[in-house]
Structures are given as C-alpha cells and as structure tokens.
Amino acid sequence: MNIIRTVFIRGAYLCKRFAIRPYNFRMLHLLALLPERASKVALDVDTVFWVVFWLSAIAFVGVVLTMLVFMFKYRAREGDEEPGEYITHNNAVEITWTVIPAVGLFAIFFLSLHAYRRLKYPESVALTVNITGRQWGWKAEYPDGKKLITGTIKKEGPITPKDFSPILYVPAGEPVEVVLTSQDVIHSFYVPEFRVKYDAVPGRYTKLWFQALKPGKYPVLCTEYCGMWHSRMPALIVALKPDEWERFKSIDASTFNSTFASMPVDSFLAVLRLPDEEFAKVVGAQKKAMASMPLHKRGELLYQQLCSSCHTTDGSRLVGPSFKGLYGKMEKLKDGSTVKVDENYIRESILDPTAKIVAGYPPAMPPFQGQLSEDEIQALIAFIKTLK
Amino acid sequence: MIESKKVEREEARPYETYLDKKGLMSWLFTLDHKRIGLMYLTISMLFFLVGGLFALIFRSELMFPGKQFLSPYAHNVLFTLHGAILIFMVIIPMIPAGFGNFFLPIMVGAKDVAFPRLNLMSVWLFAIGGILLLLSLLFGPIDTGWTFYTPYSASKGLNVFIVSLAVFILGMSSILTGLNFIVTTHKLRAKGMTWGRLPLFVWALYATSLVQIIATPVLGITLLLLGLENLFHIGFFNPKLGGDPVLFQHLFWFYSHPAVYLMILPAFGVVSEVVSIHSRKHIFGYWFIAASSLAIAFIGFLVWGHHMFTAGMSPTADVLFSFLTFFVAVPTAVKIFNWVATMYRGKVRFTTPMLYIFAFLFIFLVGGLTGLFLASVGTDIHLHDTYFVVAHFHFTMVGAAVFAIFAAFFHWLPKMFGRMYNERWAKVGWLLNFVGFNLTFIPQFIMGSMGMPRRYWDYPVEFWPYHFTSTIGAFTIATGVLISVAVILHAILKGKKAPDNPWGGMSLEWQIPSPPPTENFLEEPVVEHGPYDFGKEEGH
Asked: Pick from B80, B122, B84: which is nearest to B101 by CA?
C-alpha cells in the first residue's frame, strides 16, 4: 500500500512541478508522434515516416481483421470432432501475396532514398563546425576559434531542457555542417527536432548537416551508449535570427571563449539582443575585464572548459590525478621513477601527456600540442599553483 | 497411499518412460535427448526469471525522472545483464535446444539425435557458460551493453574478458546443437519420412541450425579478439592502439543479425505446428513456409549493416543494406499470410497454445511492420538507437519469440509429462502477458519516435508519462509470467493425466504414448502420411 501511495504522491508532484497538464503535454499530441519539424530535411523524413505508417496500418488492420474473422467464423463448435476442410495450398494466391508486398516494399525503399540523399548531401554549406564528443560532454570549435564546451549534469533530481547548456549557436535558415569525432569512446550526436543523427567515432570523422527553419533552442542528445553518464550529456543548439548571428560573428574568439561561452543561453541571447551601443559596450567591457584578469583566473576558466571532466580540484579521483596540492609534489611514475611537479613537468604533461604517466592512471589524456597558446599554458599553470 | 498410486501409474504405463530413472546422476550424465532438452528448458527458465527481474528493477528506476534508487552504473549493469542473459541464455537456446532437442528426433522418427554424447557436452557447456555469466558479477559487473561496443568495452580488462569467454562457450554449445540437428535430420529419418513429410518445426530448426553453425564462429572470433585486446592490449578495435572500432560493429553484427533469425525461426516453427493442429487443418502452403525459413536464413546473412546506418559506413553500403533489409521482409510476410490462411475453413479451437499464437501474430505483425521504419535508411537515421528500436525488437523477440515459447510449453506439456495444465489459469496468464506486453512497449514506440534515446538512466521530464505507463506494463507482464510458470509447474507436479494425443495431432510425436518411452517409439515407426493431413480422404 505504501508503494502505491508513494507512486501517487511522486506523480502528483511531478505534474505540479513541471506543469504537466493534459493540454501542454507532448504525449497528447499522440497523432503528431514525431517531435517538432524544425529543419529543412525533417519534412522529407516525415513524409517517408507517414507513408510507411499508413501502409503499415492498412496491412496491420487487414491481416488482423482477416485473422479475427477466420478465428470466429471457423471456430470449432462444442463437441465437433471433425477436422477442417482439406486445403493444402494455392500457388496463384501464394505468388500474389509474395509479389504485392515485394512491390510495396521496394516502393518504400525508393521513396526513402530521396530522404536519405537530402539527409546526406547539403546543397551548400554556410558554416562548418567541428564537434568532439567525450565522456561526458561535447566540445564545438568554430573556424574562427570560438569554442563551446558542455559537461555532465550530475544532479539527482529530474532534468528539463532548461538544464542543458549550449553547444552550438547557428544562423537560422542557413545550412550548417558538423564534422564529428570523439576523443574517447563512440558517442552519437542526435537532434530529434532536426531528424539528424550521426555517431562520433574516435579516430575518424563523420559528417552531418542541418538547416534550422526558425530561431529556437533544440536539444542535442547522445544516442550511442558511452558509459556511466550517457544519459546526462545533453546540450542545446541555438538557432539565431540573422541580426543576432551577425552580432555573434562580430565577437572575437578569445573574448567569447573566456566569457560568453560559459554564459547561460538566455543571458547570452539577451546580450545579443541589446541595442547597438550597449552591445558594443558590454563586449568592450568583457574584453577589458579579460585583459586585466589575473593570470590564475584565466587559468581557472580554461580549466573549467578543458580539464574539469577528468581532473578535480578537491583531491578526489576522476580519470586523471586531482590538481589539488599537485604543484611541488613528488609524483611516482609508471616506469618506477619519481618526478617533481614543477612548471616544466606540467607543461610537458599538457602538451604530450603520455611522455610521463603517473603510476596507477590510464594513458587517457589527449595531447594539447598546438591547441593552446603559450599564454593559456601559463594561465593554467598559475591556476594549478593556487590549488594548495 | 503412495504405494498404491505408484502401482496405478505403473499399470497405466506398461513401458519405461524417459522420466522413470531417478537420481541426480541419471540426469547429469544422461544421453537421452528428451532429458537433455528438459535440462535446457529448466536452465533457460531460471535465467528467464532472473533476466526479467533485472528488467523490473531498472524499469522501477525509470518510473520517475531523476534518480530513484539506482546509481547510473547499477542501472547500466542491469540493462547489460538483462540483454546478455535473455539473449544468450533464453531466447537463442530455449526453443531449438530445449523443445528442439526434445521433439526433433521424435518428429523425424529417430531414437535419439545423431551424436548423443556431443549433445550432453553442449548442455554442459551451456550450463558452464551460464554460471560464468553470473560469476562475472563477482569479478566486477560489466556495463558495456550486450553489444560490447568498442572502444568502450576495449579497456575494461578482466571483466569483459570473462563475459566474452562465457558467451564464447555458449556459442560453442550452440554450434554443437546445430551440427547435431543437421546430421539428425539428414541421416536418422524413419522409413517413409520424406523431406516433404517433415513437420515445419523441423524445417525451421534445420534453417536455424544452418545459421548457428555458419554465424556463431564469427561471434566466437570477435569476442576472442575483444578478450585478447582487453588482456594484452593488442589493438584490434581501440583507435588508441591503432584499431578500428567500427570493425568490431561489422564483425559483431555479422553474427548478431543472423542471430535474431536464430531467435525467431524456431518460433516460426512452433507457430506452424500449433496453428495447423489447433485449427485441425492442413497447413496452408507447406513448401512456401519451409522455403521461406531457408530464404530468411540466407538473406539474414546479408543485412547486418542496417545496425550501422549512423556509424559512418559509405552511402553505397547504407543504401545496399537498406535494400537487402526490405528484401528479408518478403518471406516473413509470406509466412504470416500462410498462417492466417491455415485457419480458413478450419476448426479453430481457443486453447491456450492457440491464444498465444493469436497474440504472436498480432504482436509480430507490429514488430515486423515497425521494422520497415528502421529498414528505410531515411527514417532510421532519426529512429536509430531510440526507444523505437527497443520497442521494435521487444515486439519481435519477446512478443513473438517468448510468446511462441509459452505456446510451445502449453502445446507440448501434455506430451512431455503426460499431464494436463489448468486451462483457466493458463488463460489468465495469457491475458496478463498480452495486455501487459502492449502496455509496456507501445508507449516505447511513441517516446522513441519523439526522440527518447535508449540505454538512458534518466530522461528529460517530458518523457515521464510514457516511462510511467511502460513500468506499469512491466509489472503486469511479471504477474502474467509468474502465473504462467505456476500453471506449468502445477501441471507437471499435480496435473490431471493427459491423453496421448489431446489435440488430435498427426505428426509422429502425437502417435507415441505420453510421457514418451525411453527410446521414443515402442515399435519402429513407418510414416505413411504428412504431418498435417487433417481431413484428407482416400484418393486425395
């Protein structure tokens, strides 16, 4: 009885907390079945979906009705021990019901090829972004150096799209190409509203493209099982209006990466929507703050973007050793030797991590050679030094 | 009292049945195919309950969004074991190695399978594999999913090695059974048992055995490579060691797609038997059904790539695999039409096995038709690795294969034990299973097409109502399964005595006394008619 009560109370709470009411409930859009159609190819995909749906529905109803009619019409009456009529086969019937489904199936196949071609080959590409999956989050890099990084949502309570951080800002109405890869295991980049999905495979590149029909926020979900927090690495694609997109492009990469990249979507959108002068003022102020920011503060921002999924600052263990008290420590290495953690060791470990591996840890870190500027490395070292 | 009962029994059976010998050793070292079949069924049934229990636990976790009582890791371990146990220990072996072992030799008119000792070895291997699978829990449970996708599974060391060793051993057992069945069907048919008089169950097992001996070695090799990679860091699949993770998927699905036909073909065989006997009518299109089993077995080898439409294959491969996948739907459709047509002008009886076949046809139709959404490469991109896929394969694997297993149980129980089951409670179990099944998996179709990814420990809150309904359905199935298992156990222990041929079947297994004599036939059988010649008059 207690269980039933708990279930009831939990259910009522959820309805109230998340304003789940019959009328704003996706479930009651039962006839919609598919999520919002927010990309250009979605219509092609959905057309195939609905053609297959209705053909299947007709086939299903036809066969089940026939079966029910036969079952009841030819049921054995009480006490009837006679066998049924002796009918063994009919080749004309067999050939008919082999050929008709075959024709229908090939029709569906050809229809779906059209959607597949649209999904696979964009007519043109306005923007190409590189996205890298990792356990458990995504990293996006724009051609001009802007970077967005999303992480793992580890809270125990329920999550909604409000908890998701942005992974991409894209112009609505423009074709965007995403080049995917992964730095550890296979992930899959899935945007239900765009009907696109592709696996992010380590060691190779895969591509997908989409063209958002209108501005809005669209969830990205990982659909290839990738370990413990597979369900908690969602992100958002934010499609911007043309003028917002122009504003976005105008921000230089280092200012964006150090400040706006980690801003909640709505605050950043508010900035993009400011009047011209104020926008320039805000960006200018951020740039200044960035320039006058203490070295270790800049290091902390970089840490959150790049290192925090594998290294903690509180002494606990993740994939790699914690940064707490790291500087100045004597580390025991895999080959048995010992090394003092100084500036040069940290620098080497960032740029070429497998050169000296700490005993007891896997050689899991990707090299950052060529990815960080001298400035950024110094900032990171300064930050690590502050973690006593 | 006990004494007199025993005497009565002996009077009723003036021959030695296969159940008469007592003692554990008489079971463990038996060469009798019927006893080996029963051992398979017992082991599989136990694992079926365990695997189902795992599903109940993680479905309870998923009943509400957010964390309830399982950590993400525990959830991932549970769905991995749920899949691995139910696939390798239940759905693959239960009909062929369980019912097949028991009935194939009888149906072809033989005293036993061709290689009884090999048969004993395969049940031993099966038990060892099962124990190893459970022992892996002690060494460190794996959370890779039953698909073991690399590179996630390639750096787990001993844990993955033990599980892949277990599956390797199970595969070995499966190969030996397949080999045994093929030789038995070719060499041990009784006088007059022509290929055209083989029951369709035997045809289905024959097609299954072909798949077993051709595809399973590939799984063995793949898992061996995975094991070596984990123990000795040889880079087959891990890109950090120079391997290719997608190669693993090709090798894995080269076995595992044919394996879904391993699971469903024997079920098709059961349907053919039950639908004909319980409609008291000749099966419609015997040769078309037999040939479609072989066609499915053959084409089944050419479609593995449809599991990888989003994995980065070339577009040519995507399109080709999509085309071939549609092709495999044709023989499947032919089978369904033939089963429905069998009822035409028959005398359909609403027995429990027949009710399971109605449920089978209903559910398998949905499972098959939703397969079209996944076969068409345009829509698969959207639906791939969502709950739509989960619902689709549960409709084909559980709704169809497991329902066929129950149909087989109730159909052959009177023959196997000479006891009748309680028809009323068996039907209650059927109703709960059927309703619960649809309640569990139809919401999964909807949430899948709405974009709910599979293998999620937690989900965005908007998917909650579907998950909630699904969990309620899971508990309904659990109730139905417990009732059905209780009915079966009750029938075996305390059921009323069953006549030798309660359904009026015409194949050989119904012509011998129940339970079957140790050597199956009291006198050498000579086959003079087909297995489905209901209502055939002289001169036909």
From this structure: B122
